[in-house]
Fold:
Amino acid sequence: MLFKKRLLMVALVFSLALGFAACNASTTSDGTETNETTLNTTTNSITTTVVTDPLITTVVTTEPINMDATLTDLTVDGITVMEFDPLKGNYVVVLSNGVTSTPTVEAFKLDQDSTVVMNDASDVTSLVASERTTTLTVTTQDELNEMVYTILFETSIQPINLGTANDFVILAETGISTETSSMITGNIGVSPAAQTYITGFSLILDSTGTFSTSSQIVGNAYASNDTSPTPSYLTTAVADMHTAYTEAAGRTANYNNLYSGDLSGQTLTTGVYKFGSGVLINTDLTLNGNATDVWIFQIDGALTQAAGVNIILTGGALAENIIWQVADTVSIGTGAHFVGTILAKTNISLGTNASINGSLYAQTAVTLDAATVTKP
Structure:
């Protein structure tokens, strides 16, 4: 009788990068689609099942990998690194302005019999990434499993230059409106739209014709059809707004798609945050840092903050150092409190009784309803 040799392909899917556990195993297969085999390894029992072609055996784990080489927490200066996961190895921490010494890193082991070897970053100000990296290696007592964690320290973030756009608390290209009386602290402006596109404020044109006033505005309202030099002033401000948007969008990100864009209930330290789609803030968001720390949020989709939700600053963080660059619409819910400068590609809307400690810059329109907008 002739026997045909068959190729047995075995895929061990561990889904956990804990190093290489010892595996002393052997198996045979008759090639049938229902054949099941058990591999007995040093640390795991793995059941296999032929799921497709008779010539291919796929092996999947039925028991978890040994977790004794993992950490339960990883902190930098007492704060858990963002998005910490025992199964995730690589992290980034952006340093506050003025920090030149390596922060204190502390590791908390799952298995107290495991060992942790830590190699601190040698120079957090270096241009060489390896010199800015702290490495921690966790090894089980039997030395069969190992997990490596790294923390790359990035230099502090520089602020975005708003140019003459910074003279305004609200600047829009197609209109600014309020459904019910709002309270604005700072100048507002529209361009290339005319003054008729500023609605709900009962504007009174100044005798010079260069700006208007309103009982709702602690400042002035400017429009493209005001008397010179206002038109050219607004043209420059709008151009600076576009430049700031482009600069913010072009910054190198420190964090990509953190928490899958759901920032609800999170605490974020200084850094550039990139999101490939929309961002949601459904419960209070905290930004923790000092007075020179900068946050830049690059959002390719919409930004939505739920009703009654707050953005909270701690540690001395300042509203003027927070930039939200948004490629789609921005919606701040009823009674919510927002913080920072919004650079929006399209429109910005604030719900009834919403408030913002910051500025609103829209490449289309800004709509308000009994809102409070205060320039930092």
User: Anything to note?
Assistant: Residues 83 and 259 are 7 Å apart (CA to CA).
